[in-house]
Design goal:
The protein is about 40% helix and about 25% strand. The protein is of the alpha/beta class and about 425 residues long. A 9-stranded mixed sheet has the order 6-8-7-9-10-11-12-14-13. The chain has a 5-stranded parallel sheet with strand order 2-3-4-1-5, sandwiched between helices. Helix 7 crosses helix 12. It is globular, with a radius of gyration of 23 Å.
Length: about 425
C-alpha cells in the first residue's frame, strides 16, 4: 500500500530551493525515507528534473559505508556537480557520517545545491538540529499516518476504521500485517528493539528497570496531569523505590527528543500566563502507547484526546492545556476558588480556539458538564466540543460548536467552519 503523504510532499515542494537544509525529522519508522526517496523523487522527475541532478545516498546501506567519513563524502558529492543547474541532494540517515555537519555546511556554499536530509537514530534527535546546522536547518516534522491517511487503506466503514486506529495507531508498516497477533507483535517489537534501544544507547542508560517503569507509568498517565515530582512520589509509594525527580525529568526529555512522546503545558486563560507544572504527556503514536501496555488500558476518552492532540500538532498548531479559575460556594456558603480544565488551547497567530473532548453528549446534564469550563472563558474566541458520535456540525445556545471526531480529523479547515 502506497500512502501519498501529500501534506508533507507539499511542504517539501514549498521549501524547495529556499537556501536552507531541509531536515526531515520524526519518530523512527514513520515514513521519512519513503517520503524523501520515493515520493519526493517521483515529484522531481514529474517536473523534468534529470536523474543526474537527483543525488540519493542511503547511508544505512553497506554499499555506502565508504562515505561515512566527511572528506570522502564531500569530495564525491562535489564531483557530481557538472553544470549550473540545480542539484537535489537527498541524504538519508545522515547521522551515520562522521562530522556530517561539515559536509552539509560545505554543500550550502554551492549556489546550485538544494539539500534534504533525514536522520532519526541515537545520534540525530530533535535537539541536535539547533546546533548542528548553525541556524540554517529548516525542519519538516513527519508524523505517523493521520486518520485521514489511514482511512485511504482501510476496507470498511469510518466507525470501524476509527476503532482500529484508536487501538493500533498509524505506523505505516503496520498496514502490512493483517491479524491481531501480527499487529501486536510488530508494535511491541518496534517499541522495544528500535526506540528504547536507540535511547539507551545514546544516553548510556543502565538502570533499565526504572527507565522502563517510568515509560509504563507515562503510558498509563496519557491525558492526565503529572510532573517529575509526582512521578518520584509514585515510585516511592507504589514501588518503594527512590527515583530522583531530576533524573525522571532527564529521562522524559530523552523520550521527547526521540519523538516518542510530546507534552502540553498548562495555560491560565484568565491570568494569561503559563504554569510550568504539572503538564500532560501524549504519545506520538497511540498504537505504540497501547502496545507498551499490552493493549490492556484502552480508555477511549484519553485515547481520543491523544489522537486529537497529535492531529493538532501535525497541522502545525501550538497546543496547550487550559485552566479557568472560578468562584464557587461550598455547603456553608463560603466562596472558594476552583480550577476547571480546558482540554486544549490552540494558538494560530492572532487566532485562538478552545477544545473539549467527549465520547458523547446524550443529554442536557452531560452538555452542562462538558461546556462548564468553556462558558467561563471571558473572551469571544471559538469554543468547540469534539465528540466521538456521528453528528452534524451545530452550535448550541451558549455559542459552542459541537463537532464530530470524523469531521475534525477529516476536514482540514474544521476549526474555521
Amino acid at each position: 500500500m502506497e500512502f501519498r503523504r501529500e501534506f508533507y510532499i507539499n511542504k517539501l515542494i514549498n521549501k524547495k530551493n529556499n537556501s536552507m537544509i531541509k531536515v526531515i525529522t520524526g519518530i523512527r519508522r514513520c515514513g521519512k525515507s519513503y517520503l524523501l526517496n520515493i515520493l519526493f523523487v517521483k515529484y522531481l522527475k514529474s517536473q523534468g528534473v534529470d536523474d543526474s541532478h537527483i543525488i540519493k545516498i542511503d547511508f544505512d546501506s553497506p554499499r555506502n559505508e565508504k562515505y561515512h567519513e566527511a572528506l570522502p563524502l564531500f569530495d564525491y558529492l562535489e564531483s557530481l556537480i557538472k553544470d549550473n543547474k540545480t542539484y537535489y541532494f537527498l541524504l538519508d540517515e545522515i547521522q551515520l557520517v562522521n562530522k556530517f555537519e561539515s559536509v552539509l555546511n560545505g554543500l550550502m556554499r554551492k549556489e546550485n545545491a538544494d539539500i534534504y536530509v533525514t536522520g532519526s537514530n541515537s545520534k540525530f534527535l530533535s535537539s541536535d538540529i539547533i546546533t548542528e546546522f548553525r541556524g540554517r536547518g529548516d525542519e519538516i516534522r513527519v508524523y505517523p499516518l493521520s486518520f485521514a491517511e489511514f482511512l485511504t487503506s482501510f476496507n470498511g466503514e469510518k466507525a470501524e476504521a476509527l476503532a482500529e486506529y484508536m487501538v493500533y495507531g498509524g505506523m505505516p508498516m503496520l498496514q502490512n500485517y493483517k491479524t491481531v497477533s501480527e499487529k501486536n507483535k510488530y508494535l511491541q517489537t518496534l517499541f522495544d528493539t528500535v526506540y528504547l534501544k536507540d535511547i539507551k544507547k545514546r544516553y548510556n542508560i543502565n538502570d533499565d528497570g526504572n527507565f522502563e517503569d517510568l515509560i509504563n507509568i507515562i503510558s498509563s498517565y496519557v491525558g492526565s496531569l503529572t510532573n517529575p515530582t509526582k512521578l518520584e512520589n509514585t515510585f516511592k509509594t507504589v514501588k518503594n523505590i527512590s527515583f530522583n525527580h531530576s533524573k525522571i525529568k532527564l529521562y522524559l526529555d530523552y523520550l521527547k527528543d526521540a519523538f516518542l512522546i510530546d507534552s502540553a503545558y498548562r495555560y491560565d486563560i484568565k491570568g494569561k500566563k503559563y504554569i510550568d507544572t504539572p503538564l500532560k504527556y501524549y504519545f506520538t503514536d497511540i498504537g505504540l502507547r497501547n502496545a507498551r501496555l499490552g493493549f490492556r488500558q484502552t480508555e477511549p476518552e484519553h485515547i481520543l484526546e491523544n489522537i486529537i492532540f497529535n492531529e493538532l500538532k501535525m497541522r502545525g498548531y501550538n497546543v496547550d492545556v487550559g485552566i479557568v479559575e472560578i468562584n464557587v460556594k461550598d455547603k456553608n456558603g463560603k466562596s472558594q476558588r476552583k480550577q476547571l480544565e480546558v482540554d486544549f488551547v490552540i494558538n494560530e497567530g492572532s487566532r485562538r480556539y478552545y477544545i473539549q473532548t467527549a465520547l458523547s453528549i446524550p443529554n442536557k446534564e452531560k452538555m452542562e458538564q462538558e461546556q462548564k469550563s468553556l462558558v467561563n472563558i471571558p473572551d469571544s474566541f471559538k469554543k468547540i466540543i469534539v465528540v466521538r458520535d456521528y453528528t452534524q456540525l451545530w452550535q448550541n445556545e451558549e455559542g459552542i460548536n459541537i463537532v464530530s471526531i470524523y469531521d475534525f480529523l477529516l476536514k482540514d479547515n474544521i476549526l474555521n467552519l
